[in-house]
């Protein structure tokens, strides 16, 4: 029997990269690769990179320096190890990566990782392999289906890519240059993917895309379907109890998506809707093509159909030319919307984007101060949102055993971690939990259904362990 080769993938950045990493493993499985958590025994190491934040490429080169040492040590021990750089930094930097780091064997962009087996063969014969063009064929049509055992091992929640790329050209963003223009997958293939996942124990699906609510994949009627219509169809698949999607653009929220939140119990009342700034002047400079008032009206459209809906968002502070008044407008919008959580970042120029050439830069000191103030406000809103769950009974989809014996962790509709003492047989079920307390960002509670409580017996001569937060 041939000894399996081992692949280690380190992913940076977005949910799409997490999904892509899994699909790389699926692509390499027919070549005899199995995944390993250790770099030291890997035959292939892939850095699956992200180019959104500042100094992304420098972080990659720093990691490559460490990997070169591991690769050299493997060679001294008579073992061949290959290194690949994938993802958006690979797309942006191309052959420059190999020029700067001799240890790299393969450079592959995010639209071409389905060619990894061929690139490995080319690297073996030619010494190096690079592919950063946007291929004509649909990579998803070429990816092998994950095996049932692999799906089950990945857990009860899964990402499914339905859309890639973006046509918005926000002045700060590299996505159109690294992921390409908007492309939506055919509805039938998405349904097949979700059906396969459901058949193997997946209960929650998150549809992902750089601009997911711009989805316009061809349906079985030959017409483009909206994201809302797709959600209606996926909700009919037996076994799928929760549907989510990310990331959305405010300009692409249509009536069908609003109605899906109104009509479909499986669609979770939690929407990630990035706004980036509360200042109309800065939004125009960012080329967002919406105003703060437009954004607030979109939020209200959701709230009219689901009173329990909550929102998260993305914010950039210190965009070129941002004044104190502009930043105050951002704080005002945050107070107006009241978020369950949000991500906030200091502006970082990305090479090749229009904003990188803007001259009215904000000092690091001012950016640091503004970021701290914004995060303090967002954290206070998130804390209040979480605290409001205490004393309530909420539905939790249980995912896995937590760190402490007897403790099972799941997530609420709003992605809050919730911990209970229970038997592992509740994993994969949505059960009501009465929330007793809050520890940092985790809810602590007890199963509300006496039948499930009775089915769990604490081991003899032990006391319940202290609850931990997180996973």
Automatic annotation (TrEMBL):
MTTase N-terminal domain ranges (all copies): 5-125
Annotated Radical SAM core domain residues: 152-384
Location(s) in or outside the cell: Cytoplasm
Reaction(s) the record says it catalyses: N(6)-dimethylallyladenosine(37) in tRNA + (sulfur carrier)-SH + AH2 + 2 S-adenosyl-L-methionine = 2-methylsulfanyl-N(6)-dimethylallyladenosine(37) in tRNA + (sulfur carrier)-H + 5'-deoxyadenosine + L-methionine + A + S-adenosyl-L-homocysteine + 2 H(+)
Residues at which [4Fe-4S] cluster 2 binds: 166, 170, 173
Protein family membership: Belongs to the methylthiotransferase family. MiaB subfamily.
Protein name stated in the entry: tRNA-2-methylthio-N(6)-dimethylallyladenosine synthase
Species assigned in the record: Afipia massiliensis
Species lineage: Bacteria, Pseudomonadati, Pseudomonadota, Alphaproteobacteria, Hyphomicrobiales
Gene name as annotated: miaB
């Amino acid at each position: 029997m041939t000894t399996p080769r081992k692949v280690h993938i380190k992913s940076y950045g977005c949910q799409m990269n997490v999904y892509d990493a899994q699909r790389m493993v699926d692509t390499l499985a027919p070549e005899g690769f199995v995944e390993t958590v250790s770099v030291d025994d890997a035959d292939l190491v892939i850095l699956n990179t992200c180019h959104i934040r500042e100094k992304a490429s420098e972080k990659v080169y720093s990691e490559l320096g460490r990997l070169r040492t591991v690769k050299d040590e493997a060679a001294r021990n008579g073992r061949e190890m290959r290194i690949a750089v994938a993802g958006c930094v690979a797309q942006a930097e191309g052959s420059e990566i190999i020029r700067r780091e001799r240890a790299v064997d393969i450079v592959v962009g995010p639209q071409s990782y389905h060619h990894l087996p061929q690139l490995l063969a080319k690297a073996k014969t030619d010494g190096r392999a690079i592919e950063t063009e946007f291929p004509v064929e649909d990579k998803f049509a070429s990816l092998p289906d994950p095996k049932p055992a692999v799906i089950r091992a990945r857990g009860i929640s899964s990402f499914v890519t339905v859309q890639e790329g973006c046509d918005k050209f926000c002045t700060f963003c590299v996505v159109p240059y690294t992921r390409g223009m908007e492309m939506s997958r055919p509805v039938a293939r998405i349904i097949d993917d979700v059906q396969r996942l459901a058949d193997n124990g997946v209960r929650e699906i998150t549809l992902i895309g750089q601009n997911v609510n711009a989805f316009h994949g061809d349906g079985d009627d030959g017409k483009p379907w909206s994201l809302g219509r797709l959600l209606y169809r996926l909700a009919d698949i037996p076994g799928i109890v929760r549907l989510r999607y990310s990331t959305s653009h405010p300009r692409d929220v249509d009536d069908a998506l609003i109605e899906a939140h109104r009509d479909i119990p499986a669609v979770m009342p939690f929407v990630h809707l990035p706004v980036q700034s509360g200042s109309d002047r800065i939004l125009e400079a960012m080329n967002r093509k919406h105003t703060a008032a437009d954004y607030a009206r979109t939020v209200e459209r959701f709230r009219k159909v689901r009173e329990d809906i909550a929102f998260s968002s993305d914010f950039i502070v210190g965009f070129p030319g941002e004044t104190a008044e502009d930043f105050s407008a951002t704080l005002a919008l945050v107070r107006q919307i009241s978020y369950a959580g949000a991500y906030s970042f200091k502006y970082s120029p990305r090479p090749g984007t229009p904003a990188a050439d803007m001259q009215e830069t904000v000092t690091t000191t001012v950016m640091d101060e503004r970021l701290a103030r914004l995060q303090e406000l967002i954290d206070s809103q998130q804390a209040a949102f979480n605290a409001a769950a205490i004393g309530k009974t909420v539905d939790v989809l249980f995912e896995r055993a937590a760190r402490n014996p007897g403790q099972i962790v799941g997530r609420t509709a709003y992605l809050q971690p919730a911990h209970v003492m229970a038997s592992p047989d509740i994993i994969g079920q949505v059960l009501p939990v009465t929330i007793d307390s809050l520890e940092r960002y985790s809810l602590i509670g007890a199963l509300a259904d006496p039948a499930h409580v009775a089915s769990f017996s604490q081991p003899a001569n032990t006391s319940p362990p202290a609850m931990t937060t997180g996973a």
